[in-house]
Specification:
The protein is an alpha+beta fold. The protein has helices spanning 53-61, 119-123, 127-136; strands spanning 11-19, 24-30, 33-40, 45-51, 68-75, 78-84, 91-94.
Length: 138
Protein backbone atom coordinates (compact mmCIF):
# COMPACT_ATOMS: atom_id res chain seq x y z
CA UNK A 1 0.00 0.00 0.00
CA UNK A 2 0.91 3.65 -0.24
CA UNK A 3 1.98 5.83 2.61
CA UNK A 4 0.53 9.24 3.37
CA UNK A 5 2.94 12.18 3.51
CA UNK A 6 3.16 14.43 6.57
CA UNK A 7 0.07 16.68 6.88
CA UNK A 8 2.18 19.83 7.22
CA UNK A 9 3.12 19.56 3.53
CA UNK A 10 -0.48 19.83 2.37
CA UNK A 11 -3.22 22.46 2.40
CA UNK A 12 -6.17 21.84 4.76
CA UNK A 13 -9.40 22.21 2.77
CA UNK A 14 -13.02 22.21 3.89
CA UNK A 15 -15.70 22.84 1.30
CA UNK A 16 -19.46 23.08 1.02
CA UNK A 17 -21.87 23.80 -1.81
CA UNK A 18 -24.53 26.50 -1.94
CA UNK A 19 -25.66 24.95 -5.24
CA UNK A 20 -24.48 21.53 -6.43
CA UNK A 21 -26.48 22.01 -9.67
CA UNK A 22 -25.10 23.69 -12.76
CA UNK A 23 -23.65 26.23 -12.28
CA UNK A 24 -22.08 24.87 -9.09
CA UNK A 25 -21.44 27.36 -6.31
CA UNK A 26 -18.79 26.21 -3.84
CA UNK A 27 -17.37 27.84 -0.74
CA UNK A 28 -13.96 26.58 0.25
CA UNK A 29 -11.87 27.25 3.33
CA UNK A 30 -8.20 26.69 2.49
CA UNK A 31 -5.77 26.97 5.42
CA UNK A 32 -8.20 29.40 7.10
CA UNK A 33 -8.88 31.60 4.02
CA UNK A 34 -12.26 31.55 2.27
CA UNK A 35 -12.79 31.35 -1.49
CA UNK A 36 -15.99 31.20 -3.54
CA UNK A 37 -16.02 29.33 -6.84
CA UNK A 38 -18.71 29.24 -9.51
CA UNK A 39 -18.30 26.44 -12.11
CA UNK A 40 -20.27 25.91 -15.28
CA UNK A 41 -19.85 22.32 -16.46
CA UNK A 42 -20.65 22.55 -20.18
CA UNK A 43 -18.07 25.25 -20.92
CA UNK A 44 -15.78 24.28 -18.03
CA UNK A 45 -15.73 27.97 -17.11
CA UNK A 46 -14.68 28.60 -13.53
CA UNK A 47 -14.68 31.89 -11.62
CA UNK A 48 -12.98 32.03 -8.24
CA UNK A 49 -12.59 34.94 -5.84
CA UNK A 50 -11.52 35.45 -2.21
CA UNK A 51 -14.06 36.20 0.53
CA UNK A 52 -13.65 38.08 3.77
CA UNK A 53 -13.61 35.65 6.71
CA UNK A 54 -16.98 36.79 8.12
CA UNK A 55 -18.62 36.43 4.69
CA UNK A 56 -17.08 32.97 4.21
CA UNK A 57 -18.27 31.80 7.63
CA UNK A 58 -21.79 33.13 6.95
CA UNK A 59 -21.95 31.38 3.57
CA UNK A 60 -20.75 28.11 5.15
CA UNK A 61 -23.84 28.32 7.37
CA UNK A 62 -26.08 28.62 4.28
CA UNK A 63 -24.63 25.50 2.61
CA UNK A 64 -27.06 22.84 1.45
CA UNK A 65 -24.44 20.07 1.59
CA UNK A 66 -22.37 18.56 4.37
CA UNK A 67 -18.75 19.70 4.42
CA UNK A 68 -16.04 17.73 2.65
CA UNK A 69 -12.71 17.77 4.48
CA UNK A 70 -9.42 16.92 2.82
CA UNK A 71 -5.74 17.72 2.68
CA UNK A 72 -4.41 18.63 -0.78
CA UNK A 73 -0.86 17.85 -1.75
CA UNK A 74 0.69 19.09 -4.99
CA UNK A 75 3.52 17.08 -6.50
CA UNK A 76 4.53 18.18 -9.98
CA UNK A 77 1.39 18.25 -12.13
CA UNK A 78 -0.54 16.02 -9.70
CA UNK A 79 -3.07 17.26 -7.15
CA UNK A 80 -3.57 14.59 -4.48
CA UNK A 81 -6.58 14.91 -2.14
CA UNK A 82 -6.48 12.83 1.05
CA UNK A 83 -10.01 12.85 2.48
CA UNK A 84 -10.92 12.96 6.18
CA UNK A 85 -14.08 12.58 8.24
CA UNK A 86 -16.96 10.88 6.41
CA UNK A 87 -14.68 10.00 3.45
CA UNK A 88 -11.66 8.93 5.50
CA UNK A 89 -9.62 6.47 3.47
CA UNK A 90 -10.26 7.99 0.03
CA UNK A 91 -7.37 9.47 -1.92
CA UNK A 92 -8.00 11.19 -5.27
CA UNK A 93 -5.26 11.92 -7.75
CA UNK A 94 -5.89 14.48 -10.50
CA UNK A 95 -4.20 16.45 -13.27
CA UNK A 96 -6.15 19.47 -14.56
CA UNK A 97 -5.14 19.23 -18.23
CA UNK A 98 -3.62 15.77 -18.56
CA UNK A 99 -0.84 15.35 -21.10
CA UNK A 100 -0.98 12.51 -23.65
CA UNK A 101 1.44 10.49 -21.51
CA UNK A 102 0.85 10.70 -17.77
CA UNK A 103 3.85 11.42 -15.55
CA UNK A 104 4.72 8.85 -12.85
CA UNK A 105 2.40 8.77 -9.83
CA UNK A 106 4.11 9.92 -6.60
CA UNK A 107 5.52 6.90 -4.76
CA UNK A 108 3.40 7.39 -1.63
CA UNK A 109 0.12 7.00 -3.58
CA UNK A 110 -1.36 3.61 -4.41
CA UNK A 111 -3.68 3.73 -7.42
CA UNK A 112 -6.66 1.39 -6.98
CA UNK A 113 -8.94 2.51 -9.80
CA UNK A 114 -10.63 5.48 -11.46
CA UNK A 115 -12.55 7.95 -9.34
CA UNK A 116 -16.22 7.08 -9.17
CA UNK A 117 -17.43 10.33 -7.66
CA UNK A 118 -16.50 13.97 -7.92
CA UNK A 119 -16.55 16.33 -4.94
CA UNK A 120 -19.98 17.75 -5.75
CA UNK A 121 -21.48 14.24 -5.92
CA UNK A 122 -19.69 13.27 -2.72
CA UNK A 123 -21.13 16.32 -0.95
CA UNK A 124 -24.68 15.14 -1.66
CA UNK A 125 -24.23 11.41 -0.86
CA UNK A 126 -26.11 9.65 1.91
CA UNK A 127 -24.22 7.63 4.54
CA UNK A 128 -24.85 4.28 2.80
CA UNK A 129 -23.40 5.59 -0.49
CA UNK A 130 -20.40 7.02 1.37
CA UNK A 131 -19.64 3.67 3.03
CA UNK A 132 -19.88 1.90 -0.35
CA UNK A 133 -17.56 4.42 -2.03
CA UNK A 134 -14.95 4.17 0.74
CA UNK A 135 -15.17 0.33 0.73
CA UNK A 136 -14.55 0.22 -3.05
CA UNK A 137 -11.39 2.29 -2.62
CA UNK A 138 -9.69 -0.21 -0.31
Amino acid sequence: GGRVPPRERGAAIEQVYLSPADPQVRIRKVDGRYVQTVKEKATRMEVEFPLQAEVGRALFELAITAPIRKTRFVEGPWEIDVFHGRFDGLVYLEIEDPPRTLPPVPGWVEVVGPASAGNVRMATMNERSIRALVARSR
